[in-house]
C-alpha cells in the first residue's frame, strides 16, 4: 500500500504534462455542463434602479456530480513483488503490435443536449449568480479543482483531436502512437460532448490496452546460474538497476553474484561495489582496462562453483564506437556460452525515461548489437513525459520488466499498466 502511494506520488511528475494539457484542451472551446444554472448577465437588458437585494440570493441547484463510471479499475495496491512471483519460464513470443483500430471502450451515453445558455426572460432585479470565470490559466483551474467546479464538456471534433494529438506527441508518445491512440479514442464518439474525466478515462484505457501485453516480470528459468546480461548507454541506470534487482532477488532467497563488466571505468566498478554492499551480494571485478569477456568467464565459473541462482553481468555503454561495443558484447556471450550454451538467459536493456524519444533509437541500436529480451525503464520519477513508454510498447512490443522511480534500493517497481495509465493521464485511482 505504502509503496504504491509512493509510486504514484513519484510518478506524478510524469502525469502532470498530459493531465494539465487535457484540462486545458477541454476548457478551450468547452463549456460548463449545466450552463442554464449559471446565467450570464445580459448587458442589453435595462437594469431597474438598484432595488434592495433579496434577503438571500436565489438558490442555485448544485452542479450535478459526475456520474460517469470510471472504466479503469485500479487494483489494490500491493507491496513490491519479489522475484518469486515471477512466472515460470516463459520465453513467450513477443506481443504483436497493437491492431488499429481496436475495439474501443463502451460508448458513453450522449450527454443531454445543452439548453439555451440564456434564460429567455431573466427576472429583472435579481442579481446574477456568481460564476467563476471560465478558461484562463493554470491557477484558475487549480482553484476550481479544489471547489465544486462545474464539469466542463467539449465536443470531440477535428480541432480537439488535433490538440489531443499534439499533446500526446509533446509528452513523447511519438507521432504514430499518438495518431493511433487519438483515432481509437474518437471512434464512435466523434461529435459527442465529453468531459475532462471522460477524456482521461478514454486515454487511460487506450494506454492500458497498449501496455498490458508488455507488462511482464523478468522470466526466471530453472538454470543455475541464470545469466542476466545488462546493457544500455552510459548513465541510463544499469548499475543502479543491477543493485536494486540483486537486492530484490536476495530478499527472495536467491543467491546472486554480480560481475562488473564495465572494466573501462574504475568509477563504474567502484559504484557497482557500493551497490553490491548495499544489496549484500558479492561483486566480481577485474583490473581497469582488462578484458570484460575474461571477467565474465571467471564470474560464470565462480557462480557455477558457488551454486548461485543468478549471475548479473554489467556491461559498458559506450555507443560512440558501436562496432567495438558490439564486438565486446558478442565476445562476452561467446565465452559464457562455453560454460552454458543457453546463456545469457536474459538481456536487459536499461533505458532512461528522461531521454524521451531518444530511448526509441537506443532500442533500435541495442537490438542490433545484442539480443535484447526485455526492458527496464529508469528515472520515471524525473520526467514530465512518461509517454515514451507507450511509444516503446507500441513500436517494439518488448516486455517491460520493471520501472525505476528513484535512486534508493527499493525504488524499482514491477510495471503495472493500469497504475501507469492512471498516473500518466491524471485519472483519479
Ligand atoms: N531519479 C532516478 N535516478 C536514477 C534512477 N536510476 C538510476 N538513477 C541515477 O542515474 C545515475 C546513473 O545511474 P547508473 O546506475 O550509474 O547508470 P549506468 O548506466 O550504470 O552508468 P555508467 O556507470 O556510466 O555506465 C545515477 O546518479 C543514479 O542514481 C531512477 O530510477 N530514478
Automatic annotation (TrEMBL):
Entry's localization field: Cell inner membrane; Cell membrane; Cytoplasm
Domain called AAA+ ATPase: residue spans: 224-371
Biased composition (Basic and acidic residues): 31-43
Domain SRP54-type proteins GTP-binding: 225-426
Residue ranges of every copy of the Signal recognition particle SRP54 helical bundle domain listed in the record: 134-211
TM ranges: none
SUPFAM superfamilies associated with the record: Domain of the SRP/SRP receptor G-proteins, P-loop containing nucleoside triphosphate hydrolases
Membrane topology label: Peripheral membrane protein
Signal peptide bounds: none
Biased composition (Pro residues): 44-131
This protein's UniProt keywords: Cell membrane, Cytoplasm, GTP-binding, Hydrolase, Membrane, Nucleotide-binding, Receptor
InterPro entries noted in UniProt: AAA+_ATPase, P-loop_NTPase, Signal_recog_particl_SRP54_hlx, SR_rcpt_FtsY, SRP/SRP_N, SRP54_GTPase_dom, SRP54_N_sf
Segments of this protein annotated with the region Disordered: 15-135
Domain of life of the native organism: Bacteria
PANTHER family: SIGNAL RECOGNITION PARTICLE RECEPTOR SUBUNIT ALPHA
Record's function text: Involved in targeting and insertion of nascent membrane proteins into the cytoplasmic membrane. Acts as a receptor for the complex formed by the signal recognition particle (SRP) and the ribosome-nascent chain (RNC). Interaction with SRP-RNC leads to the transfer of the RNC complex to the Sec translocase for insertion into the membrane, the hydrolysis of GTP by both Ffh and FtsY, and the dissociation of the SRP-FtsY complex into the individual components.
Subunit structure comment from the entry: Part of the signal recognition particle protein translocation system, which is composed of SRP and FtsY. SRP is a ribonucleoprotein composed of Ffh and a 4.5S RNA molecule.
Family named by the database record: Belongs to the GTP-binding SRP family. FtsY subfamily.
Name of the featured protein: Signal recognition particle receptor FtsY
Species name: Sedimentitalea xiamensis
Species lineage: Bacteria, Pseudomonadati, Pseudomonadota, Alphaproteobacteria, Rhodobacterales
Amino acid at each position: 500500500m505504502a509503496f504504491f502511494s509512493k509510486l504514484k506520488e513519484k510518478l506524478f511528475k510524469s502525469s502532470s504534462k498530459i493531465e494539465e494539457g487535457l484540462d486545458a484542451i477541454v476548457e478551450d472551446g468547452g463549456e460548463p455542463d449545466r450552463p442554464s444554472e449559471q446565467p450570464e448577465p445580459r448587458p442589453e437588458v435595462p437594469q431597474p434602479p438598484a432595488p434592495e437585494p433579496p434577503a438571500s440570493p436565489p438558490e442555485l441547484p448544485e452542479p450535478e456530480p459526475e456520474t460517469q463510471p470510471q472504466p479503469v479499475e485500479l487494483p489494490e495496491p500491493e507491496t513490491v513483488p519479489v522475484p518469486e512471483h515471477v512466472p515460470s519460464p516463459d520465453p513467450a513470443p513477443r506481443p504483436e503490435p497493437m491492431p488499429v483500430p481496436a475495439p474501443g471502450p463502451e460508448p458513453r451515453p450522449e450527454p443531454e443536449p445543452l439548453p439555451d445558455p440564456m434564460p429567455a426572460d431573466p427576472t429583472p432585479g435579481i442579481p446574477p449568480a456568481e460564476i467563476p470565470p471560465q478558461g484562463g490559466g493554470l491557477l484558475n483551474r487549480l482553484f476550481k479543482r479544489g471547489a465544486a467546479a462545474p464539469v466542463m464538456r467539449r465536443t470531440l471534433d477535428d480541432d480537439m483531436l488535433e490538440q489531443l494529438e499534439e499533446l500526446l506527441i509533446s509528452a513523447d508518445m511519438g507521432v504514430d502512437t499518438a495518431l493511433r491512440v487519438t483515432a481509437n479514442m474518437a471512434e464512435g464518439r466523434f461529435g459527442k460532448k465529453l468531459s475532462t474525466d471522460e477524456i482521461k478515462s478514454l486515454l487511460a484505457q487506450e494506454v492500458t490496452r497498449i501496455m498490458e501485453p508488455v507488462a511482464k516480470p523478468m522470466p526466471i528459468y530453472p538454470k543455475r546460474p541464470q545469466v542476466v546480461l545488462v546493457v544500455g548507454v552510459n548513465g541510463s541506470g544499469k548499475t543502479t538497476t543491477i543493485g536494486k534487482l540483486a537486492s530484490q532477488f536476495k530478499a527472495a532467497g536467491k543467491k546472486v553474484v554480480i560481475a562488473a563488466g564495465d572494466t573501462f571505468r574504475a568509477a563504474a566498478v567502484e559504484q557497482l561495489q557500493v551497490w553490491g554492499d548495499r544489496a549484500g551480494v558479492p561483486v566480481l571485478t577485474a583490473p581497469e582496462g582488462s578484458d570484460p569477456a575474461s571477467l565474465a568467464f571467471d564470474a560464470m565459473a565462480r557462480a557455477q562453483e558457488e551454486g548461485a541462482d543468478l549471475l548479473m553481468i554489467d556491461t559498458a555503454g559506450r555507443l560512440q564506437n558501436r562496432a567495438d561495443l558490439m564486438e565486446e558484447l558478442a565476445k562476452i556471450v561467446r565465452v559464457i556460452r562455453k560454460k552454458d550454451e543457453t546463456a545469457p538467459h536474459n538481456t536487459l536493456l536499461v533505458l532512461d525515461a528522461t531521454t524521451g524519444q531518444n530511448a526509441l533509437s537506443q532500442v533500435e541500436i541495442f537490438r542490433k548489437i545484442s539480443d535484447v529480451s526485455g526492458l527496464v525503464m529508469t528515472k520515471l520519477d524525473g520526467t514530465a513525459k512518461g509517454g515514451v513508454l507507450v511509444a516503446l510498447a507500441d513500436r517494439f512490443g518488448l516486455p517491460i520488466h520493471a520501472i525505476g522511480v528513484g535512486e534508493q534500493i527499493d525504488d524499482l517497481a514491477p510495471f503495472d499498466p493500469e497504475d501507469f495509465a492512471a498516473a500518466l493521464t491524471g485519472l483519479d485511482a
